[in-house]
């Protein structure tokens, strides 16, 4: 299985930290955030990664190289202009191939085992959902006996980690577009599964949350 790490975000809420450093290279527990993802994926047996980038993206390539020292092969999908999540994945499809692939937001940290996500035959996606954090109490979706719905209760938050079939994106024209409308359309057709991850998860959207993650990881030693 291949995996894609989304690393093209500008990280405006993390300023001034991201004025001169791309968000995925910000450090927690002495390692860049994106390295935490790479190490977890490599441990799970994922050997081929695709990373998109835009803002200060050359720093990401310089820091990670071809991935050899992490035991993986990294290919890059540079974006000259912001393509949003859906457009960024669509741009990278030639690098991802014809089989389902894992996508991880570069600005989250999670102890989910990547192999826990599996596509049910006929599905276009399986999403990892977590309990709603304090900064997002309304949640995103509902998990109903393993199926993800847009309405109902109780609601959970999308963890920014999903397993996708390339057919979810293949009919979309190249360019910028959001992922959420594609997922909602697939949910309406009952083609999205999900799991409730009850382990640790951080949305690293502010310097304060980055600092909190750093404290947690250091304490875990």
TrEMBL record:
The keyword Nucleotidyltransferase is annotated on this UniProt entry: yes
Pfam family, one: NTP_transferase
Domain (Nucleotidyl transferase): residue spans on this chain: 2-113
Keyword Nucleotidyltransferase set for record: yes
Keywords annotated in UniProt: Nucleotidyltransferase, Transferase
Name recorded for this polypeptide: Nucleotidyltransferase family protein
